[in-house]
Amino acid sequence: MKNYPLLEVRVSTPKLELRASTDELLDQLAEVVRAGKTHAEPAPYDDPMSFYETDPDLRVAKWLRAVWRRRGTVEPGAWRLNFAVMVDGQPVGEQSITGVDFATLGTVTTFSWLSVDLRGRGLGREMRAAILHLAFDGLGAKEAGSDAFVDNRGSNAISQGLGYEPNGYEWATRQGEPALLNRWRLTRDAWEKHRRDDIELHNLEACHALLPLT
Ligand SMILES: CC(C)(COP(=O)(O)OP(=O)(O)OC[C@H]1O[C@@H](n2cnc3c(N)ncnc32)[C@H](O)[C@@H]1OP(=O)(O)O)[C@@H](O)C(=O)NCCC(=O)NCCS
């Protein structure tokens, strides 16, 4: 979309590509959301979360509204870039990055899900490595955070494997029930130790022109 170049940002790795979530890609990804392929057991998402909506049409509508709201909110305190995870040319998941007081603190958090059909093949780890490359190499982040419920083995294994250090616990609710979250932090120095040389960033000029990075 030439009039909103943040929707042209891409990150490519040998296994997948993160492409900024245009409405066209969201429309395709909606079929994965409609089919409930976002879910996992134990429940991985803290409230509020559209994916817990049982009516498929309402689930898709709530998910789209949340994506659009965040796309349209670019403030120094918080901005978010949302990407469709592309594997073999198909959108199969979502990976986002949120800047939190980025100009002052240099901190980001990330969030992701992958279609249940494609889990367990290393793609979740690859998505995280890709978004971290954008954060640290592309945007100059100082630290990345990630939270996951203590029983979310996949997400916690990815954080640990990529060099994050434990950063305490926090209570949250999922589907109304209290549950404990693991908090993780990855410093720039720790990221440098795992830094990849096979991840490419594309059309990043838009981030520097349109996001409150400094
Ligand atoms: C989290 C998620 C993206 C991981 O994707 P994935 O492609 O299955 O993960 P990978 O194949 O890259 O596995 C990464 C690591 O997690 C481990 N892992 C993944 N799923 C696991 C499971 N269900 N149980 C135990 N370990 C698991 C793998 O063994 C691997 O460990 P290793 O690096 O030590 O070998 C995916 O499971 C998902 O979409 N879950 C639902 C949404 C979610 O939890 N989002 C994140 C928190 S809100």
Automatic annotation (TrEMBL):
Entry EC number(s): 2.3.-.-
N-acetyltransferase domain: residues covered: 16-187
Acyltransferase found in the keyword field: yes
The protein's name in its UniProt record: GNAT family N-acetyltransferase
UniProt lineage: Bacteria, Bacillati, Actinomycetota, Actinomycetes, Propionibacteriales
Keywords: Acyltransferase, Transferase
GO terms for MF: acyltransferase activity
